[in-house]
């Protein structure tokens, strides 16, 4: 690379490349908000990603070369060309593969790197794959999605290199993602409907079997469970061999869950560990009270006794009691659901998230070092 190219990067405006193979709704809202705030941002993502039409209209979409590994030479070459052509000052890469390829692509370039941590899964210092991404010494900042992850990452980063930023959620997204033809089972009019959404196949920590055991123990013919997502066959067999078998409904995987949530009365998150689950935020947007284990992450969202109930992690009896408590009191469910939605709007808005991220960008590239901050949207 020529000296003039490097110099151009060093003196660039606040210019950001956001890399993600497939955006979620919160990430889409974030990049559009940043563009609206004057950040020269480009989004490198798949043509099939959510919101691509909106990104095109904003003039910030670049179709990425397909990549599934932490070292993809064609993708790395594409990244490096974009960094130079767009005078990128910051790369924001919220997943491990994107982050690793970005680190390879910017070798020798004065580009700031922002990573992301959304899980409490342990980081192993002796596993070299972590040093290719989240533990790489060139990662300048790591955004953490909840307080437990933020505190855990202090083992690897000083506080000044970490940012606690809850992923924003707008209740309007639930309506946008609703399935008008959602195939709902026939349920009695007086049924109390419990719902759980999870990708639990091969992931026992999601606690699906715990919830199934609790359903069998309720002893109530009016309590039905809608389970949306993936599961192991052992879970299906467990559901079929207990007293609640006819009241447990496996609905399979669906991208839009709002229609299912709108038929429910209670949302249950039975996980033993989790981040800041999107499905819980979707349930809060539909004014559902939440039952979750007293574990880091979900308890950032749910206030015990106000917007839902906590249960003892791994305890079938504790979860059963929580389900029965809410099933017995429709007024309590309504009060908790209303407070939960108010909390979601107040504390977890996309605007608050975008403001935090923008402040982080300015911290990495102070205004004195920038030529300007004109918007890529024109």
Descriptive account of the structure:
Helix 4 packs across helix 5 (96-105). The two termini are 29 Å apart. The radius of gyration is 22 Å and the shape is elongated. Helix 7 links the parallel strand 6 and strand 7. The protein is α/β, with parallel strands linked by helices. It contains 16 helices and 13 strands. The protein folds into 2 domains: 3-168 and 349-367, Rossmann fold (3-Layer(aba) Sandwich); 172-347, Rossmann fold (3-Layer(aba) Sandwich), CATH 3.40.50. Strands 3-2-1-4-5-6-7 form a 7-stranded parallel beta sheet, sandwiched between helices. Strands 10-9-8-11-12-13 form a 6-stranded parallel beta sheet, with helices on both faces.
Distance between the termini: 29 Å
The averaged pLDDT comes out at 90
DSSP helix fraction: 25-40%
Q: Rg to the nearest angstrom? A: 22 Å
**Largest beta-sheet characterization:** 7 strands, parallel
- Domains counted in the coordinates: how many? 2
Q: What is the CATH class of the largest domain?
A: Alpha Beta
β-sheet strand percentage: 15-25%
CATH superfamily of the largest domain: Glycogen Phosphorylase B
CATH topology of the largest domain, anyone? Rossmann fold
What is the CATH architecture descriptor of the largest domain?
3-Layer(aba) Sandwich
């Amino acid at each position: 690379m020529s000296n003039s190219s490097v110099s151009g990067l060093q003196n660039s405006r606040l210019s950001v490349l956001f890399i993600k193979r497939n955006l979620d709704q919160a990430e889409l809202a974030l990049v559009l908000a940043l563009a609206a705030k004057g950040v020269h941002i480009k989004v490198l993502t798949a043509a099939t990603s959510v919101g691509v039409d909106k990104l095109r209209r904003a003039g910030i979409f670049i179709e990425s070369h397909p990549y599934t590994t932490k070292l993809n030479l064609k993708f790395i070459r594409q990244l490096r060309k974009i960094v130079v052509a767009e005078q990128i000052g910051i790369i924001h890469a919220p997943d491990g593969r994107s982050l690793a390829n970005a680190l390879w692509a910017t070798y020798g370039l004065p580009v700031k790197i922002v990573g992301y941590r959304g899980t409490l899964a342990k980081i192993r210092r002796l596993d070299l794959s972590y040093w290719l991404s989240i533990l790489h010494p060139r990662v300048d900042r790591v955004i953490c999605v909840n307080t437990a992850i933020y505190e855990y990452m202090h083992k690897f980063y000083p506080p000044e290199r970490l940012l606690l930023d809850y992923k924003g959620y707008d209740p309007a997204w639930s309506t946008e993602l609703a399935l008008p033809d959602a195939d709902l089972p026939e349920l009695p009019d007086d049924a109390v409907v419990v719902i759980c959404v999870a990708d639990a196949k091969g992931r026992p920590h999601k606690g699906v079997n715990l919830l199934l055991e609790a359903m069998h123990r309720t002893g109530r013919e009016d309590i039905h469970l809608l389970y949306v997502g993936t599961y192991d066959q052992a879970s299906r067999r467990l559901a079929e061999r207990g007293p609640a078998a006819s009241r447990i409904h496996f609905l399979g995987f669906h991208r839009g869950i709002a229609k299912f949530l709108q038929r429910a009365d209670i949302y249950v998150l039975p996980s033993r560990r989790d981040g800041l689950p999107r499905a819980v935020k979707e349930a809060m947007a539909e004014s559902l009270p939440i039952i979750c284990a007293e574990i880091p992450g979900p308890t950032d969202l749910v206030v015990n006794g106000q917007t839902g109930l906590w249960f003892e992690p791994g305890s079938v009896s504790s979860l059963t009691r929580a389900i029965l408590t809410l099933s017995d009191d429709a007024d309590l469910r309504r009060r908790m659901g209303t407070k939960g939605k108010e909390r979601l709007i107040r504390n977890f808005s996309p605007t608050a998230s975008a403001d935090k991220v923008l402040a982080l960008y300015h911290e990495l590239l102070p205004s004195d070092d920038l030529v300007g901050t004109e918007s890529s949207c024109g």
